[in-house]
Amino acid sequence: MSTRKDAVAGQFYPASKNEIQKMFAHYNKIIDESIKDESVLELKPRAVIVPHAGYVYSAFTANIAFRLLKNSHAKRVVVIGPSHRVYLNGTSVAEYDSYETPLGNLPIDKQLADELIQKFGLHFQPDAHAEHSTEVQMPFVKNYLPEASVVELVYGNENPSNLAKVIEYLLEDEDTVVVISTDLSHYYDIEKAKTLDTVCLDAVANLNPAELHQGCEACGIIGVEAMLIAAIQNGLKPTLLDYRTSADASGDKSQVVGYMSAAFTK
After folding, report:
1. Which residues contact 88 (CB under 8 A, 6 or more apart)?
2. What would the pLDDT profile of 133-150 be if each residue is shown by its tens digit?
3. What angle do CA 248, 10, 98 make, to 5 degrees?
């Protein structure tokens, strides 16, 4: 049995199950106390966009999306994120048997992974899978959909329309949900960051892939564009859930990173 070992536990997120669960409980308490439109908490997403920075900065933003994903009762979660560490041509699918998290291992849906490789010409590049953009999502999956299996897709030099076809295929199965991982602008002062990030937020809210190319600097822009194309094809509606920057956690407004989460529903 091969396992995709956690590579960034203790760095991007706590290595302790209790610490992670305590964080999630804290975020949920804030949501319950502050949310104005409770109908948002009843959404059943087919797909979500979430950030992937260290939990101290971005986990609140991701948590609300995964909390909603729980409503889907999905059996399969496909997590798609950009490669930060290695050059990658196209998209790599993790061909392991299980995925390690501090909350317990997740089974990998090998049959679906093989299907995607054969049907869409994807491949398995092992060194691409010590990737934080996808890994930081897995404790959320284990916490909110503990019985689900996962598939991890990491892309590099990829055409958004190719990736959109993969997402469209995945969404044909009502038991499968898709998680798109991206942060927004990186290391601008807060005013500039918010200006750039608004382009990304508007593109998602308006289901307008072309708008992404008018100033959105998301590191996972390929995945976001693919998701918007697939959402249009599948008649999904976007709901923006949260936006903030690293300054909300650090107080430093001189070099911030932007984070958003969004849900796509029927």
Report:
1. 125, 128, 154, 155, 156, 157
2. 999 999 999 999 999 999
3. 115
Burial class (CB in 10 A: 0-12, 13-18, 19+), 33: exposed
Whether residue 259 contacts residue 183, with contact meaning beta carbons closer than 8 Å, is answered with: yes
User: In the chain, how many H helices and how many E strands?
Assistant: 9, 11
d(CA 220, CA 181): 7
How far is the C-alpha of 140 from the C-alpha of 24, rounded, in Å? 9
pTM: 0.98
Half-sphere exposure of 107 toward its Cβ, with a 13 Å CA cutoff? 10
CB within 8 Å of 22: residues ≥ 6 apart: none
Whole-angstrom Cα distance, residue 234 to residue 129?
29
**SS3 string of 25-72?**
HHHHHHHHHHCCCHHHHHCCCCEEEECCCCHHHHHHHHHHHHHHHHHH
Give ∠ CA 99-262-202 in degrees, rounded to 5.
140
* DSSP SS3 for 155: strand
Residues 179-206 pLDDT 10s: 999 999 999 999 999 999 999 999 999 9
pLDDT for 164 beyond 90: yes
First-residue to last-residue Cα distance in the chain:
37
The three-state secondary structure class of 157 is strand
Q: Which residues on adjacent β-strands are paired with residue 177?
A: 77
